[in-house]
Design brief:
It is a single chain. By secondary structure, this protein is an alpha/beta fold. Helices cover about 35% and strands about 20% of the residues. It has 20 helices and 24 strands. The strands form 6 sheets. The protein has an 8-stranded parallel beta barrel with strand order 11-12-15-18-21-22-23-24, surrounded by 7 helices. Strands 3-10-9-5-6 form a 5-stranded mixed sheet, with helices on one face. The protein has a 4-stranded antiparallel sheet with strand order 17-16-19-20. Helix 4 packs parallel to helix 9 and helix 11 packs parallel to helix 12. The termini are far apart. Keywords: Carbohydrate metabolism, Glycosyltransferase, Transferase. It catalyses: Transfers a segment of a (1->4)-alpha-D-glucan to a new position in an acceptor, which may be glucose or a (1->4)-alpha-D-glucan. This is 4-alpha-glucanotransferase.
């Protein structure tokens, strides 16, 4: 059915892909039908299919401008689509907010950038020159003869905001894992502020955070920051009492603090921590209501007005109370970034944006019309998951994303760039395509679905400049060539992990392999800390939790010996330093980090877990209840960790400055 095949293409339903084995895979029509059905489209309804094809193809040529027009700031021209019989007529473009009017007596001499024939009429796309305009979003009205169209002009820079003038060193953390100075069982913004000062004093330029997204107050054990309640809101558990003005002279709060429960030394008890901290938050809020000055209440009202769209997604009983907690969290996150700036950090905080949200959270429920139904985000088959992966996160409908001129995605990016100096985007390939998982005749099936890449990329570039925020795209795995090229030309940092960068023989690639415009790490939250990896303790943990049996454990330990030797080979090639399998983990780690510090990558990130010589993993991929993911705490205050590593950090800074 030709019209259905056309709709597959226009709606972004993938046709083929190359598997990790190199195999060329073409999706079955039944698979593609199932994907389209998840978008609410009846694949047997010929009239509906024809109407959608017209709207997505020919219909786009029957109006002078689309709802959104992309304009490059360094070559500003507007693509206007017009019946060629009207080329001799006058044209006027008005941008009221900028007090700009562009008039032409005719369109004859403009460059033609495209054409389309419909009902024996030829339509031309012509390039209308524009004056220089500020980066951002500007409403426009165009008139040609008796036709008029409204559009939002997105004036976008060629590249994202960047600070690519020298090599920088940073540290990655899981904020909740920081040793809490006040014994409340979870790291908070005061602990982060303290770490900012320590990191800056040791020559670091940034701290890479875990996602700070809102989780589930009434289901506190749902601890994964990558399956959040809402990505546009912050997790109140990070609020520090010591940074909150409403903690001063608060007798109810002081009384409650005297009843503080004792926390554990290794893992966060989220039920206990959340229950107690929300009691404390209630004391803060009531104190604010009763004692706050007119000025502070006005500040709160201004915050609520500025963030009204994201706050409107809160699905709770008392929205003012929930909004108050968001206000406090934003104030404290902003304070941490201010401290970074005052201490001379060039970037400061780098936030982390998860690829999706939970299917029962406030983000999904408040915007469910933007999502597909019955499709989750996942990954195609790979060597570690031959059946593919289903991450259980609802997939956004690519056609619905354009609603209100992409208001959802714009506000999401803006919310996550606010109060920070950088944004890491988890699974950045999602702005081009995502693997959908869905049911097809009782069996799990899947295919790639494509998204409005140019528009989503434009939003990243515009918001990056408006917020003075660098952008890092986590591009691990299979990355389409056009995505890799676009990220590079847009000055979006790639994200390299040493563990995964190998040649066809399995040997680690030379440090010079890492691109200059990249963020390089030895590992991330899905890989065990170096100490645990080197000693094989991560394999022991898997056996303890019955994730592998004894035979599998022994096989993994033998394979690990090979990997360790390859790492030693890498260090030998880079530095001529001869280490052995019996060398202590800390010695090998420092040698490896010094090798990578010399790599061309402008951003080199070490994990605070490795500075703390942790052996327990933060997260074991593929597990949920089996292992206590996203709960493991650091063993000591960050000041002690940083002080104990001063000599090592100074060596890294020296190498980076060469």
């Amino acid at each position: 059915m030709q019209s259905l095949a056309q709709l597959f293409y226009l709606h972004g339903i993938g046709y083929e892909y190359t598997k990790y084995t190199g195999e060329h895979v073409v999706f079955d029509e039944s698979t593609r039908r199932s994907a389209l059905s998840c978008c609410g489209i009846d694949c047997t309804d010929t009239d509906t299919i024809n109407q959608l094809n017209f709207a997505l193809d020919a219909g786009t040529w029957l109006t002078l401008l689309p709802n959104v027009s992309l304009v490059e700031s360094d070559e500003p021209f507007l693509r206007v689509r017009v019946d060629e019989r009207l080329l001799s007529r006058g044209c006027e473009l008005r941008l009221p907010s900028l007090d700009i009017v562009v008039s032409r007596e005719n369109l004859h001499e403009l460059s033609v950038t495209g054409d389309y024939r419909f009902n024996d009429i030829r339509y031309l796309e012509v390039a209308l020159p524009l004056p220089d305009m500020p980066i951002g979003y500007h409403d426009a009205v165009i008139t040609v003869a008796d036709q008029e169209a409204h559009s939002e002009l997105w004036i976008m820079p060629k590249q994202c905001f960047t600070v690519d003038d020298k090599k920088r060193l940073g540290v990655s953390i899981q904020l909740y894992s920081l040793f809490n100075a006040h014994g409340l069982g979870i790291g908070d913004f005061a602990d982060l502020a303290s770490l900012m000062r320590e990191a800056a004093a040791n020559g670091m330029d940034y701290i890479l955070l875990n996602p700070l997204h809102l989780l589930f107050e009434h289901s506190p054990e749902r601890a994964s920051p990558y399956s959040p309640n809402s990505r546009a809101l912050l997790n109140p558990l990070y609020i520090a009492l010591s940074l909150c003005e409403d903690a001063k002279d608060n007798l109810a709060l002081e009384k409650l603090l005297n009843e503080k429960p004792q926390g554990t030394d290794t893992y966060i008890d989220y039920t206990s921590v959340s229950d107690f901290k929300y009691q404390l938050f209630s004391c803060l809020y009531h104190h604010f209501r009763e004692t706050a000055s007119v000025e502070r209440k006005a500040q709160f009202e201004a915050f609520c007005l500025t963030h009204k769209h994201s706050l409107a997604t809160l699905v709770v009983g008392d929205n003012e109370y929930a909004s108050y907690l968001q206000w406090q969290a934003h104030l404290q996150l902003n304070l941490c970034q201010q401290i970074a700036n005052e201490c001379g950090m060039d970037i400061g905080l780098i936030n982390d944006l998860a690829v999706g949200c939970a299917g029962d959270g406030s983000e999904y429920r408040s915007q469910d019309e933007l999502f597909s139904h019955g499709a989750n985000v996942g990954a195609p088959p790979d060597p570690w998951a031959e059946q593919g992966q289903n991450w259980g996160l609802p997939a956004l409908n690519p056609q619905k994303l354009s609603k209100d001129n992409f208001a959802f995605y714009r506000s999401l990016i803006r919310a996550n760039m606010e109060d920070v100096g950088g944004l890491r985007i988890d699974h950045v390939m999602a702005i081009r395509r995502l693997w959908w998982c869905f049911d097809n005749q009782g069996q799990q099936d899947g295919c790639y679905v494509y998204y409005p890449f140019e528009h989503l990329l434009a939003i990243l570039k515009i918001e990056s400049h408006l917020n003075q925020c660098v952008v890092i795209g986590e591009d691990l795995g299979v990355v389409p060539t056009e995505v890799r090229d676009a990220l590079k030309s847009s000055a979006i940092y790639s994200n390299g992990l040493f563990y995964f960068e190998k040649d066809h023989n399995g040997e680690f690639l030379a440090s010079e392999h890492f691109a200059s415009h990249s963020l390089l790490m030895i590992a991330n939250h899905d890989v065990p800390p170096f100490n645990g990896w080197w000693t094989g303790h991560d394999i022991t943990v898997k056996q303890q939790y019955s994730l592998v049996d004894e035979a599998q454990s022994n096989a993994l330990l033998e394979a690990r010996k090979i990997e360790k030797q390859r790492m030693l080979n890498f260090i030998m090639r880079e530095t001529s330093q001869q280490l052995t399998l019996d060398t202590e983990a800390s010695v090998v780690y420092q040698a490896l980090a010094c090798c990578l510090a010399a790599a061309p990558a402008r951003l080199f990130t070490i994990q605070i877990d490795d500075l703390d010589q942790q052996i327990l993993p933060v997260n074991i991929p593929g597990t949920d209840k089996e292992y206590p993911n996203w709960r493991r705490l650091l063993s000591r205050p960050t000041q002690q960790i940083m002080h104990s590593q001063q000599s090592f950090l100074a060596s890294l800074i020296s190498i980076r400055n060469q």
